[in-house]
Design brief:
mainly alpha
Length: 164
């Protein structure tokens, strides 16, 4: 009866760890204990998160869209048509203003998308840490249950031999 109770409690705890959200990271001491020592002990080194794997990002280090400046277009000297508006016809100026606002809008959208992807990557790392902790804890509970069953079985069998 006790073994069944421990088994149910450990299954609930493993399920809780497995489906935990990205609220906060696994505490440092627990990461160290579970991912360095216990994972090595249970031959699970390939199934736990490694800090080396997390260096790469889906979002490359490209231009800094936060500091992007508006595009400035200046006519060349030989392009002056009528001497007004620095030599640019009004249609061209409206087109340049429209393109400038479009470029600013694109830069804002890119900023939003890159920030969102980076935030999602950070959440995914936290979720994967909790899932890896659940796998390590599940393996620990498996071995403890197996050892307890073996000890109980051995004690029960050895107790029968002494009675006869």
């Amino acid at each position: 009866m006790g073994l069944a109770t421990v088994s149910v409690i450990s299954a609930i705890l493993v399920s809780h760890l497995q489906h935990r959200g990205a609220t906060k990271r696994v505490p440092r001491w627990l990461r160290q204990l579970a991912f360095k020592h216990m994972a090595y002990l249970f031959c699970m080194c390939t199934s736990v998160p490694n800090d080396d794997k997390r260096q790469g990002s889906v979002v490359p280090n490209g231009p800094d869209y936060n500091n992007m400046k508006a595009v400035q277009v200046k006519p060349k000297e030989h392009e002056c048509l009528d001497g007004k508006n620095n030599g640019w016809p009004p249609e061209a100026l409206r087109a340049v203003e429209s393109m400038t606002s479009d470029i600013d809008s694109i830069a804002r959208n890119l900023r939003y998308l890159t920030d969102r992807v980076k935030g999602q990557e950070a959440d995914d790392i936290v979720v994967e840490e909790w899932r890896a902790l659940a796998r390590v804890f599940d393996r620990l509970m498996f071995w403890l249950s197996l050892i307890i069953m073996f000890v109980v079985f051995t004690v029960l069998l050895s107790g029968r031999d002494h009675e006869h």
